[in-house]
Amino acid sequence: MRKTILTAAAATGITTLALTGLTAQDATTPGAMDVSRVTAGTYTTDPAHSLVQWSVDHFGFNPYFGVFGDVAGTLTLDPAAIEDATVDVQIPIASVAVPSAGLRDHLLRPGKDGGSPDFFGAEPGMARFVSTEVTQLGATRALIAGNLTMNGQTGPVVLLTEFSGAGANPMSEAETVGFTATTTIDRSSWGIGYAIPMVSDAVDLKISVAFEKQ
What we know:
By secondary structure, the chain is of the alpha+beta class. The chain has helices at 2-27, 101-107, and strands at 41-45, 51-58, 62-68, 72-77, 86-92, 126-136, 141-150, 153-168, 175-186, 202-213. The longest helix has 26 residues, at 2-27.
């Protein structure tokens, strides 16, 4: 009984220390959702901490999702003229990550007998988004319209974008700004029609990007 009480007390102490540590860490977080921290200039992505999550409806049973990483690109930004901002980012399709090795192989499988692949194929190249217009919705939100090129086809996309934080990166010491964005696209518009409608044509995208000032 005494051992049980001591074990419980120790566990409680560890939990308290952990919570205290987290609280202390949160108090010194380098980034904050404070637009006054953002300065004008040209920024490039932090590829190690930028990603695109995609989600489709699978057979009407449940949503299935994966991610693309290694996002590269540039942002030009002036807090005093948000609507003049420009974004140009590239996402290597081969960076796609899913829990199933078999599905990943299928996504990057070449077409049978020289035909078109079901999804991206063995040499998928880059997806690229280039902005054409920015419309400010408030202090921290904007609509970014642009063109997405993927699978050799280009089409319009509008991103609902939200500022998520700014500050100095403690590792690189670079001024850093972060944004999240969401949109929904029809994959068939980029020539990816495999298994529609059993696997939804609509693909929900959630984007999280950190940019470092140059």
